[in-house]
Every structure is written in structure tokens, then in C-alpha cells.
Amino acid sequence: MADKVTITDVARVAGVSRQTVSNTLNSPEVVREATRRHVLEVIEQLGYRANQAARQMRTGRSRLIAIRIDPGGDGIAGSVLDRFLHGLTESAAQAGYRILLYTAPDDHSEIATFEDLLGSYEPDAFVLTGTHHGDVRTSWLLERRLPFVAFGRPWSEMPDARHPWVDVDGAAGTEAATRRLLAAGHRRVGFIGWPPGSGVGDDRRAGWARTLAEHGMDAGGLSRAGEDAIANGESAARDLLADGVTALVCASDSLALGALNVAGPDVAVVGFDDTPVAGAVGLTSVHQPLGQAAAACVKLLARALDSTEPPTTHVLLQPSLTVRRSA
Amino acid sequence: MADKVTITDVARVAGVSRQTVSNTLNSPEVVREATRRHVLEVIEQLGYRANQAARQMRTGRSRLIAIRIDPGGDGIAGSVLDRFLHGLTESAAQAGYRILLYTAPDDHSEIATFEDLLGSYEPDAFVLTGTHHGDVRTSWLLERRLPFVAFGRPWSEMPDARHPWVDVDGAAGTEAATRRLLAAGHRRVGFIGWPPGSGVGDDRRAGWARTLAEHGMDAGGLSRAGEDAIANGESAARDLLADGVTALVCASDSLALGALNVAGPDVAVVGFDDTPVAGAVGLTSVHQPLGQAAAACVKLLARALDSTEPPTTHVLLQPSLTVRRSA
């Protein structure tokens, strides 16, 4: 049922080559006046509109930015990237770009998808999410000098990991949470996070630990770790509560929900990411400015695309605390 | 920092026109053998890959499917479309298409965005979400014979609303929920839904009402309505509980969460959409097969794109009940 008018239709009806149609639109000075006028009449008559394909042929720009979309696990943490994606789509549109989606189960599949996309849709740039230690995607893109921005800082001290990135200061978020709990009078503030080794998780733990240290408190024995699941939050909280902890800072809303399930009303709990679940159950949680992060990504990309030097700029945004009844 | 090789680079290095490069790739029979061999050598040497733009110029197909992404409100119901979007991206990739995102605050902005996209990226097709009574988007697309599929059935009896659509049978979902509650011995089963007039909401209410009728029960006075928010679920549940209701079927997880907040442990509550929040709080909820729905949309679109007749096929999928501790 496609009845879109293509450049081929215009060429056929006008009795000229497609190149002449293209020249009429893009380089009118090389087309004879009479031909040009005739082609423009046919364009008008058929309702043809110079399209992105023609513009891309001319400029070498697709005006597409590609990003991965994830299945979202239990869907609690997944909502963070969904909100980021919405912001990115809006900011990109304002800058004259559109968002192209792809899925990839792991880094190597994602690199294969980069190659596939570059050979077909030719996105002008990529937005990487879920950066981690030894991220092979960044080195792959850097080696090929392909424009990209990471939402998430480079977690490895790689000498060549110089690329634009945008991130939210997770440690500042858990610091704010810990300060609030100390100000409320709690003296044994525990932390429930992920197993050591993840950049994001270690950073969130560090904010809690350094705040206790600044208050002359010993963090020793007050931290537990587990994969990001409600059940792990429950068992870690049980363990810490048995040790006399009265308040809990958690690396995610999933872990915090588990803590809430086993904590009595006097125990304060703070989550991380301010997901819809946090709003639904009254959980105080660290909020990331995802719309701002998305806008910053588009801004850095637009700069990278208009520059001949590899840009190394980065933006570290500050989170805030959304206070509800849990703390 | 873009160093992508374009058709212009190949033409310059080879000393031929871009049209000759294009012909070499797409219509080699019209290019002299020596020229063709020379251009192919330059293509090899520069690492140029025939790209989507060239293919689009040739075929009139962009291999792009456009869909709107929403802000998601309280984020609870939003997760449904996010899961659908992930499935759509995967199914589209398997069929050789990629997903292009846009945002639009209302129907008329969305139509303006259709025009903008058609004049630039030229998506091959659109996927509409959030269909409703008197949906002007469908008539706009139908009038222009543009290929699209709606995730959501046409709710108006418009004579021209003949287009492919995929939906999940919401009434069958609330029917299954109501049957379960009746089988558990409940005799006063209430319904909390949205204000009358929304196709989706009325359909979900109808499934509950017809199941009570089938069991010879009177639904009169057992239904309450409010906008989709936790607080409205709370007040509606309070009201129905005061009327002796012992079980509640809700049109959304947001309303069901409100009901759970005010219901005692003996009151059974069923939500709709099986969102992450439902999993987190142990809410029994109607589950929509979103991956299947996305795959069906891609299948109908692929058929529409390869046919000259406007297809009117539709797919109505059956939901299931995800049983947790609330009912």
C-alpha cells in the first residue's frame, strides 16, 4: 500500500535521470534553467519531498543517533533507562536528530550491531549505556574514531578512555541519604549494595562510607552485598538489623524494597533511583536528573559531530533526595 | 571527528560522478567494465560500504518503523509500553527493520510529527499506540494510504477504520480475575476502573460485569471510577469495602495498589498489567503478552509493506493471570 513518491518517480515522469532530479534540488546551478523548472513542476505535481536519503547522500549525515534498549530485568531498575530514553528522544529532536533503537544481549553482540548499523543506517553517533570496568565497546568506538557519548563514566583507568560522557554522581546521592539519616539521630547506619567490582555499585557504597568517616564513625561490619533483587535486600536487612542497625542506605530501590519488607516502622530505609515502585510504597530514594542527563548527552554529541578533534568533555550531574515516609 | 567514507569521497578519489559510483553498486550493467573495476577498487581501498541512504534512494524503502515514546506518567503504567517497545525493537530487527523514536504530547502534534518524519527520514510505516475513540491519527494515515499498525483496536465505529491492529483482550483478563475471586468463595466482588468513555477502561469493566451476570449476580453499585492514580484506588476501595465488598478487580496496578493500601489481609485484590510494582508488592495482576503483541505488529506491517491492497487483518491476544499473594 506504499504510494510514497520517490526520486525515481520524479525522474520517470520528468523524463530525466535521478541525478538531474537530485541536482535540481541540491546543486541547481549545474542544471539548465528550463530543465530545472520542468523538474520542479513535476516535483510539485507529484508531491515529492526531498527526503532524508537524498540529504544523507549529499551531506554524509543520517541525523540518526543509535542507542540500545534493554529488557529491564525485574523492571524496577529498567525504568531509569526508559526515562533517560524519553529525554533523549526529546532533546535529540530539538537538535535535529532522531533516535534509532537496537537490542544486544552483551558487549560483543553490541559491537556486531555497531558494524551492522554503520554498514546500513549509518548513524551519526552512538549513546552508550551501562558502562563498566574494561568496557570493550568504548575502545572499539575510539579506535574507529566514531562519535559517541557514554551515559555513565569510564570506570577503568584506560589511557585511551578519553571520550565524552555524562553521569550522575552516585556517591553524592548516598552521601545525602546518609547525612539525612545521621541528622535524624540514627547512629548505626548500614549499607546494602551489590558485590564489589561494579563501578556504579562501588561508587554508591563509597558515598555512604565516607560520610560515616566524616562523622567519626566506623563503617566496619555495617555493609552487606548481593545481586540486585528484592530477596537479597530482605536477607541483608535481616542480618544488619540483628546487628543493631536502625537505618539503611541501599544501592537500589529493589534492595530497599526488600529491606522495607523486613524492617519495622522504626527502621529508616533509603533507596536509589526513585523508581515508580518507590513512589508506590512511600520509599525515600535518591533521584537522578535523567532529563538533564539526556540533554547533556545530545549537547556533547552535537559538539563532537561539529568538531574535528576528539572531544573529551564530560558532565557530572548532582542527584537529589526524594523524601517519602520511609526515611 | 566523523571519518565515515561517503559516496562523495569515493567519487572524488575515483574521479567519477556520484551517480557512477551509485550505478556501479546498484546498476553495474550500465557502467563501462573498466570504470566499474576502477570504482570497485576505490570502494575497496577506502572501505566504503553501500549504505542505507543509497539503498533507500534505490528502493524507496528506509527500513525504518516509527513509534512514539511516552513520558510514562507515574511510571507504573508506562512500563507496559516500554516492554512493548523492547519487543518491537527485537522483532523489527529480525525482519530487517529498525525502530525510530519520536515524542508527541497529543494527537495533533503527533500528526505534525508524521508529516515531519515523512518529509525527512521517510519511515516505511508507523506503529500507533494509545488508540482511543475518534482517533484522528488513524483517519489521517488511512486517507494518505500510509502503512501503519495500531497496538490497540479502533474504538470508534468509523466506516473507514479498516487497518491492521493488534490488541490484548482486556475484558478476558478481568473476566479471568473475577472468575478466580468467585471460585475462592467471594460473593461481593467490586470493580475499580476509570471514568466511562475510554475504550480500554470500558472494556475491562465489561469483563468483570459480564462474569458477575453469568453467575447470576448483580453488579449494581459495586463499581467505582477515578483517574489512574493510587489515591483514587484508595478512596474507591474504602467506599466499596464499606458496602461489604470482600474482593476487588482493578483496571490498573496503580488503582490496585491504592486498594491494597486500605484493604485488610482478608480482602482479595487483582490488578491489571503485571507491572514491576505488582511483583514488588505481591499483587496478583492480569498479564499482557507484550512480546507476542510486538511480534504480531511487525508481522502485520511486513505484510502491509509487501501488499498493494490495504490490509485489514487484526490480532486479538489473550492475557493471563499472574497469581501472587494478594488474591
Short summary:
Chain A is of the alpha/beta class. Chain A has helices at 7-14, 18-26, 33-46, 52-59, 78-94, 107-118, 136-143, 170-183, 199-214, 230-242, 253-262, 276-281, 290-305; strands at residues 64-68, 98-102, 125-129, 148-151, 165-168, 189-193, 223-225, 247-250, 268-272, 284-287, 314-317, 320-322.
Written overview of the protein:
The structure is a homodimer of 327-residue chains. With 327 residues, chain A is of the alpha/beta class. Chain A folds into three domains: 7-59, Orthogonal Bundle (434 Repressor (Amino-terminal Domain)); 64-168 and 290-317, Response regulator (Rossmann fold, 3-Layer(aba) Sandwich); 170-287, Rossmann fold. Chain A has helices spanning 7-14, 18-26, 33-46, 52-59, 78-94, 107-118, 136-143, 170-183, 199-214, 230-242, 253-262, 276-281, 290-305; strands spanning 64-68, 98-102, 125-129, 148-151, 165-168, 189-193, 223-225, 247-250, 268-272, 284-287, 314-317, 320-322. In chain A, the strands form two sheets. Chain A has a six-stranded parallel beta sheet with strand order 2-1-3-4-5-11, sandwiched between helices. The longest helix of chain A is centred in the first third of the chain and has 17 residues, at 78-94. Chain A is elongated, with a radius of gyration of 26 Å.
